[in-house]
Task: structure prediction
Amino acid sequence: MQDHTNAVRTGTTYNNFLPNAKGVIIGEQQHFTQNNTDGVDPTLFVQLAGYVGQISPTLGMPEPERAELERVAQDLHDEATSENPESGRLLQFTTQLKDKLLEAGTTMAATMGVQMAEQALGVLMQ
Result:
């Protein structure tokens, strides 16, 4: 039995390099579950982008400003629905939307949008 447990194994050695790996399991496991809580839940950002797209025609903004508002909302949506949303870009686009909604006036629709933006930004600050 001693010969079996101390047997010299020959063969190729493979080295795995996994940059920024968190919670990675390496080995021969057959069944495992990995929960990654390092990312950001994009739900509030997607909802904000969709809401802004719906209300932008009702805000009474000049066309160039409205087009810019919708462009930023689309950028936010694209980032939030990407495979790996970056919190810095979510922060940037959400802040831009909030600022543009504040400039749009104090309509109920704009106020709701500002509140949604603040709620989404709160997720990033946790």
The longest helix spans residues 63-80. Helices lie at 2-5, 43-55, 63-80, 87-104, 108-124. Confidence is low (pLDDT under 50) at residues 12-37. DSSP finds five helices and no strands in the chain.
